[in-house]
Amino acid sequence: MASADSPAVGTSDRRAAVTAVGHFLPEHRLTNADLEQMVDTNDEWIRTRTGIRERRILKDDSKASAFMATEAAREILATRDIDPATIDVVIVATVTPDMLFPATACLVQNEIGATNAWAFDFSAACSGFLFGLTTGAQLIESGRYERVLVIGADKMSAITDYTDRSTCILFGDAAAGVLLEPHDTHGLSDVVHYADGAHGDLLCQPGGGSLNPPSHRTVDAKMHYIQQEGRPVFKYAVTRMADACSEIMARNNLSADDVRYLVPHQANKRIIDATAKRMGLPDDQVMVNIDRYGNTTAATIPLCLHDWEAKLRTGDQLVLTSFGGGFTWGASLLTWAYDGADAA
Ligand code: ACO
Fold it and tell me: What is the pTM of this model?
């Protein structure tokens, strides 16, 4: 585990800043009313327990995470009119890769024509984007690379059991990501990241890997679907996410007034509210879109950045935070490096 003494990212002469954002959302909306027809649940329970009203589902069986990540990457490149051949690295955070290999990132690299990039996937469940962002930032800070794409993409509907009311109400499909480039002053300046593998069995997809390769037995036992013990995961998520945010604020001497926005992983509105309360942040300084998209795993944090991009200003300090399967969790301090459209 990291500690308060761990070296921060951003200690080199140059930082890695987010310089563009992109996203992809499937068109089909799965509403709480739709779910009422599928399992024994109701809109009121889902809204009050999770904050979710609807999620997006990629209905086309011929398309998956690589398609969504490619669309997000294309949007990133288009917003800055960037030649894909100038991308150095493509990182895709996902727990729903198109295949175990080749990496989804390689499929994206090919589709967008990033002919000079190397590419790899990142598996840290809902913390995938946060950990991927740190990794991408370190590649920039090393001085070796100039342009790194970090994308979170998950087709959660592919591993969701739509007869299990305790999980099928939670998840949605999406991709979103950022471009990282060098910056003298702004960008990712500190992170606290953690893992605790002792609780991996509380939130997992047990089938399909080398321990339980796909077979009639694993499929009959529904081992290819997400399995979660919601209550203990909830308890861990509430405390660990809030602890990580408190830690990053304390070691950077930040008060609530210094933080423009909290950018939390969107797993449950109650977890987000508890974290914001501990930080002393009012609702209008917390990015929340779980009501519209549900939990899109690795895509939630960049999807928030996309939805709030127009409001962001150069110098805004953002605290990004996540908690997910593994367990994995953490917080990062990101200083925004450009003015959003609303500033014009
Ligand atoms: N509709 C109606 N009732 C339901 C539903 C449903 N969809 N699902 C469960 N219930 C029932 C349960 O059966 C239970 O009934 P009982 O009391 O008769 O046994 C009751 O509601 C309460 O169930 P809990 O599981 O205790 O409900 P809880 O308030 O904990 O909410 C939830 C469940 C939303 C899953 C919550 O536990 C949660 O958000 N957990 C954390 C999720 C998370 O953060 N995951 C990490 C990130 S995800 C990733 O990494 C991929």
Answer: 0.95
